[in-house]
């Protein structure tokens, strides 16, 4: 009677997407609002471009997996 619905994306890719959103968010906040997420003691330099790139890549992996698992016409 009840059918279990399988998610088109695995929990691993959901976690990757969340980490990607976090990295993208802190990178954009640093780049455009000059908001330092990390304390001054960390002295990471300009971490905005690498965190933006890493966040976008991680989010793209999750979207690719989602699009790959969606069956057209259903």
Task: Break the fold down into its secondary structure elements and pairings.
Blueprint: H1 11-33, H2 48-69
- Total strands: the figure is 0
DSSP strand content? under 5%
| Oligomer status | single chain
Helix and strand string, N-terminal first? Answer: HH
Give the helix/strand class.
mainly alpha
Query: Helicity range of the residues?
Result: 55-70%
Mean pLDDT: 82
Count of helix runs: 2
Q: Which stretches are low in confidence, meaning pLDDT under 50 for 5 or more residues running?
A: none
Please state the overall shape, judged from the principal axes of the Cα atoms: elongated
Task: Work out the radius of gyration.
Answer: 17 Å
How far apart are the termini? 20 Å
Commentary on this structure:
The protein has two helices and no strands. The chain is elongated, with a radius of gyration of 17 Å. The protein has a domain at 17-37 and 47-68. Helices cover 61% and strands 0% of the residues. It has 74 residues and is mainly α. The two termini are 20 Å apart. Helix 1 (11-33) packs antiparallel against helix 2.
Name its key features.
mainly alpha; single chain; 61% helix; 74 residues
Sum this structure up briefly.
The protein is mainly alpha-helical and 74 residues long.
């Amino acid at each position: 009677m009840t059918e279990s619905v399988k998610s088109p994306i695995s929990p691993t890719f959901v976690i990757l997407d969340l980490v990607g959103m976090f990295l993208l968010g802190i990178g954009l906040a640093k780049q455009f609002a000059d908001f330092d997420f990390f304390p001054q003691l960390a002295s990471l330099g300009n971490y905005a471009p690498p965190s933006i790139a890493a966040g976008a890549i991680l989010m793209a992996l999750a979207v690719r997996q989602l699009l790959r698992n969606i069956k057209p016409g259903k």
